[in-house]
Structures are given as structure tokens and as C-alpha cells.
Amino acid sequence: MNVINSYHGTALVTGASSGLGARTAQLLAERGYRVIGAARRVEAIRELPGVVAVHLDLTDGSSIERAVRTVESEHGPIDVLVNDAGYGEFGSIEETPIESARRQFEVNVFGLAALTGRVIPMMRQAGAGRIVNVSSLAGEFSSPLGGWYHASKFALEAVSASLRAEVRPFGIDVVSVQPGPVRTPWHDEAMNSLESVSGNGPYREMAAAVAAYHRSTQDTAITSDVDTVAEVIVRAATSRRPRSRYRVGRGSSTAVALSRLPDRVFDAMTRRQFGIS
User: Fold this and answer.
1) pLDDT for 98-135, tens place per residue?
2) How far apart are CA 4 and CA 79, in angstroms?
3) Nearest to 210 by CA among 94, 104, 92
């Protein structure tokens, strides 16, 4: 792997209190980066060796500004930004409160964009930088009862593609990492959301089938462990010539290829996959 071993810069990793964000922050610190881990729960970040904690709430513009100012004043310009923070709002489109859908976008898209926009000027001034957006295969195709989560990841993919072209002339690389299922607490939280929103209404049988499917895949070959995905994120953050997109997980490229089939064919395959009529 061709990585930047001779230069150890400052990396800001969001969502660093658990899961992929925490492991990514650790791995970057082990490679010699000054790593600042950002999240709402800073207590968990303080337990990570070599990682400095900063409070960050992506739904609060003033929190974003304070976090970046703190990093700049105490650690200097940010060379690498890893946008990992995010969550999954699951449930039927009909039953999901619009306020919940808005919050999904506030965290997964708008807050990420606000933070990225705040960091870009210092990267442009330096003539170099790396932005890694941790997206998902969910940004390539959609599935039942996950529409708002998929929509946020579709949006993130579009933002990443446009941003990549916009900032490349300034020496800034934008990379999208698309994991499939990962063994993290995120998964249980998403299924809890699904059952809370749609577990007792007209979609209850579908919700039970979809939740059962997702939970059954947690110990199968298509689900990646945290270390595997975090290593790819670090590769995206440190490779001299990164790819624009990294897909992670067994069968991920096949899944994307299948999603390009005619809609009726793909929809039928999806229903069979989840065990719904």
C-alpha cells in the first residue's frame, strides 16, 4: 500500500466515540497522525490512546464552528477530514415523522457539509488536503423501510462527486468509502428505530421480516468487521493516489451491479431477499 509515511499531519475524525470512527481514529494515531476525535460523547474518545477529544454536534452550527476553531488553535490546520458520524433512520416513509427525516439529513448530509465547508479554506490555503466521506452501499440502491437513510446516503454520494470536482484544482482529494453491513452497535440502533416506527402499524409484518433479515446477517460472510472497514478508511485517507470510491465487503460490487437491473427485476429480488410479499 502506497501511503504517506514521511508526513504526519492533523486528522479530524467525526463519530469517534464508537464503532468505525473510534477504530479509524486509533489507526491514524498509530500511523503518526495528530488525531482529534469529534463526537457528542467525548468521554468515550478520551479513552482512545493518542486521540484528543473535541465536542461536536453536527446539528448545531455553533458547535461546528467551536470544534474547528479549537482544533485550529490547539493543533494547527486540518490536513485530513474523515466524516464518519451518522446514523440510520429506519421505518416506512408513511410513518416516519418528517421531523425525524429532517434530522437524518441534518446529521448525515447538512452537518457533514457544514463541517467540510468550514475546513476546506485552510486546505485550499495549504494547497493540499484529504476529505474522506464514509458513505454506504445504501447510497447505491434502496430497500424497503430504509428510505430516509438511503436518501441521505444517495445525497452524500452526489455531494461527494460534486465536491471532488470542485476542490481538485486546489490539491484537495475527496474520497467516498462505501461499506456494506458492518458489525457495530449502529445496526442494532437502526433496527430499534425500524421497530419503533413501523413495528405496530400496517407495516408490522414487513418490519418484522426486514429486522429479522438484517439481524440474521450480522454473523454472515457479507458483514465486515470494524477493523477491515477502518483499514480501508485509513487507506483512503493516506494513499498518495486514492481512488474516488472504495467499496468494502464481500459481494459489495456484485450488489451494486445487480441494482442496475431493470427495476421490476431488482424489486422482486429485494422482496425475496427480505422475505416479504
Assistant:
1) 999 999 999 999 999 999 999 999 999 999 999 999 99
2) 12
3) 92
Grid cell 416516519 in the structure block, residue? 96
What confidence score (pLDDT) does residue 267 get? 93
Using an 8 Å Cβ cutoff, are 107 and 87 in contact?
Answer: yes
How distant, in Å, are the alpha carbons of 11, 44, 107 from that of 56?
15, 13, 11
Pairing of strands 80-83, 10-14: parallel
What are the backbone angles phi and psi of residue 266, rounded to the nearest 5°?
-65, -40
Question: In angstroms, rounded to a whole number, what is the distance separating the alpha carbons of residues 114 and 264?
Answer: 38
For cell 408513511, name the residue.
94
Q: Which residues of the chain have pLDDT under 50?
A: 1-7
All domains in the chain, ordered by first residue: 10-274 (3.40.50.720)
pLDDT at 6: 41
Name the CA radius of gyration of the chain, rounded: 19
Q: Which residues are catalytic?
A: 17, 135, 149, 153
User: What amino acid is encoded at 83 in this protein?
Assistant: N
Counted residue by residue, the chain has a size of: 277
pTM for this entry: 0.92
